[in-house]
Amino acid sequence: MRVLIVDDEKLARDRLRELLNEIGGHTVVGEGTNGNEAVEKAAELNPDVVLTDIRMPRMDGLEAAMHLMGMENPPMVIFTTAYDQHALHAFEVNAVDYLLKPIRKDRLAAALDKAKKLTLQQLHEINQAQETPQARTHISVHLRGNIRLVPVQDILYFMADSKYVTVRTTGEEHLIEDSLVNLEKEFGEKVFLRVHRNALVATSYIKGIEKSTAGNWQVALTGLEKKLDVSRRHAAAVRRWARR
Amino acid sequence: MAIDTSKLAAWSMQAREQFTSGARLLRDRLLPRAADATGRLLRLFAPAPATTADDTHFLPNFCRGNAIGGIVLIAELLAIVITLVTRRISENLFQDLLLVSLFVQWIALSGAATLCAARRFLDRLPNSRALGFAYLLLLGVVLVVSEAAVWVMWLVGMVGSPRPEWYAYFHIQNFTVAAIINALALRYFLARHQLRQRTLSEARAKIEVLRSRIRPHFLFNTMNIIASLIRSAPDKAETAVVDMADLFRSMLADSENLVPVGNEVAIAKKYLDIEMLRLDNRLRVDWHVGKFPRKAVMPILILQPLLENAIQHGIEPIPTGGTIDVQLREENDIIHILVTNPLPRARSKPPMGTRRGPRDMDVASAASAATPLPSERALDNLRLRLESHYGQAARIEIVQEPERFSVAVEIPIRGETA
């Protein structure tokens, strides 16, 4: 099988590579040092299996796996971890394969033999079981078979259409398949504030709230000329937020 | 059981005689005592800790045999005390004891039965309210049983009416004694419960301390690295194993130990060597160690947790790593330690809107509100340890800037080496 190894410790990656060599029958197609690289390299190299650590800088292994599962042809994911009590328990519950460090050769071989596809549902459950369930740090955008990771902190707002949600950053716009309700629940109103039935706005970019000539409320965002409408239903909540 | 009615009548006569002296006793001694007991009981309410997470309740389970056995025993002892205190030695002492026992047991068992019946209700209440309710319930039981006792005596013909002249005193006497005894008993149960809780939380804290010292994540990651090194660089693996051994030896040492500054620096360096294996070139450390007098000692493992904290929250989250700056110097018989690490950029949020001032403080507090710094617990541990060693003489100060985090520790040099 074609394997992608992801770990922020070089010696840990070396160990996996050597063990894979000894087991035989597998090729290491690439290495990554964090979750972002895991997703980018997986999209580029199309591995069959991704062996990934959980605790890594920028984006952790769990989030990376969630983005991977959203791919058209998702690879199998096997987690390697030293000690994450809560995650381990969740893995057991969900029968997801994971390897404990120090990694044993026969255990790695067995995991590769029986590797099976994770479901997004399983991953969500594992994330929920963590001590502090985490919101994604990136939103993955699919572009003609490629994946782009948009850092959440760059996002100005989410706008819902009939079928898709538009993600707007200072420079770009992308379409994602998600719902505002889910996004609202995941990030909470500290990060994204609901201003309209179809819009979630990043609180950190809100410059001000003003009344338009037509008499309805609007939010002005840093780095965006267009102002977004605040619906009557959400006006009270938005103004309450602004007063804080 | 043969009840001698004439003796009973004599007892009631005696009670009548006692009425006047008893009233004086009540005014002079019992009432203030009762007031004290209630006061103490009321004071119990205030410090009652919020123990919502507790699965155990302070009241023992009175539905169970051994609790009832205890109650019966204590009630019997109480009956003996009452009989001995209130009666002169005479041939019918045992008969008196029998009667008093009967009455006291009746109250005690009714009380236990009431608490057993009310258990579900009491268990749902927070401790302080359950305490109040249990107290009131027990006093109610005393009133009811006392009243019933009078009626029984009337029914068997021991007294002429259900309202004999000692009726009021009988109630007051029973009520006061019960108020005191119940207050003491409940106070005892509460104290026992708090002691048990404290023992439990101390045991948990000890495990927590051990875990935070030996940090399983670090341990297993390092073993994985060593396993990798054994193949590629056996000499490095050997050094790592030996360093680990030294590090764990000092982690397992008595935390009261004082060591020369040089030893502490050496242990910290061994720890950093291991972390450098893991983090490769992501970890860089700048050491600035001044001269220290020979007598300069400090508690063991003060520097290492600071470095561990800096790595965990400053180096590991940054893909390219960073530089930790360590300064140790001595000035006016005080050891100054300053450890500075960079913070990941994700913490410093995108530019704030005009709503809030762009002052550093705001950014820092907003950032830490979004992701509470987990380092706080490690630093709290350190603060506690320093306090137990030096009281207020040692200081630990945290400075958080948007992109840097530093901890400054000041430890007085003690004259003698421990």
Q: How does this model look, in words?
A:
The complex is a heterodimer of chains A (244) and B (418). Chain A has 244 residues and is an alpha/beta fold. Chain A folds into 2 domains: 128 residues, Rossmann fold (3-Layer(aba) Sandwich); 106 residues, OB fold (Dihydrolipoamide Acetyltransferase, E2P), CATH 2.40.50.1020. Chain A is built from 8 helices and 15 strands. In chain A, a hairpin with a 3-residue loop joins strand 9 and strand 10. The mean pLDDT of chain A is 86. Chain B is an alpha+beta fold. Chain B folds into 2 domains: 199 residues, no CATH class; 197 residues, 2-Layer Sandwich (Heat Shock Protein 90), CATH 3.30.565. Chain B is 64% helix and 11% strand. In chain B, the strands form 2 sheets. In chain B, strands 2-4-5-7-6 form a 5-stranded mixed sheet, covered by helices on one side. Chain B has a two-stranded antiparallel ribbon with strand order 1-3. In chain B, a hairpin with a 2-residue loop joins strand 4 and strand 5. In chain B, helix 2 packs antiparallel against helix 3, helix 7 packs antiparallel against helix 8 and helix 8 packs across helix 9. Chain B starts with a helix and ends in a 6-residue tail after the last strand. In chain B, 24% of the residues are buried. About 9% of the residues of chain B have low confidence.
